[in-house]
Structures are given as C-alpha cells and as structure tokens.
Design a protein that fits this description.
It is built from twelve helices and no strands. The chain is mostly helical. It has one domain. Helix 6 packs across helix 8. It is globular and about 50 Å long.
Amino acid sequence: MKKMNPGLQFILLGVVFAIFWSSASVAAKIGVQSMEPLVLFQFRFFLAGILLLTYHAVFEKWQWPNLEEIIALSVFGFLNVTLYLTLFVLAINEVAAGIGSLSVSIGPVLMAIIGGLILGKKIEPRQIFGLLFGFGGVFIAVWPLLQNSFATFRGLAYLFLGMLSYSLAAVYFAEKKWNLSRYSINGWQVLLGGIFMLPLTLYLKKEPILFSTENILSILWLTIPVSLLAVNLWLKLIKIDAIKAAFFLFLCPIFGFIFSSFILDEPFTWHTMMGLVLVLIGLYLGQERKTQH
C-alpha cells in the first residue's frame, strides 16, 4: 500500500485539528441547555484529567511531581483551567458560540504582547498592528450580534478576562522549565484546575444534576475529541513544523462560525465575514518573526 505524501498528511492532520478544536464552543452551548455550565465543565475537567493521567501511567513511565512542580502545576491549572474556563462558561450563555471561538483566536497576539510587557521581549510594530486588527475584527463581528441580543457587553468582558488569564497561563508554561512529560503536565493541571473550581461550582449550583443525551454527549465531546484528540494532533503538528502548524490556528475561528451557523442557526453576515478577515490579518501580523542567522 502506497504511503500518503507527508505534506498532504500534514495538511489533513491540521484541518482535522482545527475542526475539533473549534467545535468546543458549539458543544458547550448545546450541553448547557440541560446542565449548569460550571457543572458541565466540572465533569469534563475530572474526566479529562483522569484519562490523561491514565495514559501517562500506562504508556509512559509514571512520575510523581515534587513540591515545586505541584506549585507550578497549581498556578498553571488555576490560570489555564479554573479562571479561564470559569469565565468562558459564564460567557457562553451571553454570547454567540462563534464569538467565543473568534475571541479565543486573538490569544496568540495577546500572548506576544504579554510576553513583551512581562518578559521584556521586543515587540515589533507588526505585532501591535496585529493586536489592533484582531480586536477591530472582533468588534465589527460582534456589533450586529449585540443589536440582535446574540452578545452582551458583560459576556464580552468575561471573554476578554478569560483570554487574558489563558494568555498569562501560556506565557507561564512557555517560560517554566518542566521535567514532567506533556501528558503528565496536562493531566495534573486539568485535574488541579477542576479541584480549584469545585467550591465555586458547588456554591453557584442551583439545580439538581440531571443527565441527558445532550449533556452527556457534550461532556464526552469536550473531553475526548477536544481535550485529548485535538491536543494530541497539535503536539504532533508542532513537532513536525511549528511555523506551518500555526497556520491551522487561523482556521479555528472560521470553522467556529461555520459550526455556529449550521448547528445553532446563528447569523453569519458580512459583519462576521469582515471581522474574520481582520482577525486573520491580525493573527498573521502578530506572529513573531524568527531571527535570521
């Protein structure tokens, strides 16, 4: 049997990654119709953490984190899971799922800016323009949805604060020296993040937990295709070529709006198309250039 061309295989894996990763907003939107948002994500966190650590125990050499690593994992988990996804969950009832997907796509640009402010890395003018294009695109895409009650300013504020927390987590992870495997890190930070969020979930919980076909499928989708499969595909892509892999992040908001339009019947207008174009330009401009040697 003839092997697939490596270049074509890379493209196919990237498209599959973008499809699964961008489906998270829609899956969550469906799940919260029959289960409180924080409860839904609480199940997802614990299930994903257990599955990741099980994989680490079965397929890798088990390694317990030491005290310093537990502290680092706790900080990473709080920023990356507890704070970020709590804000995201609070937002999805007040914004269109596609907007959630679009806002997350600005993360790479925001991370570059945070890296410059905190770590003193040089920020190129193109990165500043990229940030302006990105936020400008979000505003243009959101404006008609605000008029039609598809988004509220409070929901957008939640998304922005969530993006800020996620970006801080990414910068922290990138600068921290880790001795644990990636599966172990992901497993522990998801599990710890879920534990940190549990008191808030129990405090805000108002309704009895009732399982339905919709919320069970939502939890499973968010856990397996999104948390496990998409991340594994991303790790494979960046190992092959990190620069080329970044291109597929640009596809995520596009697929997010397509899913929202066809599955949730949310509007897809020239405003959203123009917003997408500006966001993609912003993300392109915001990418750091590699130093030429």
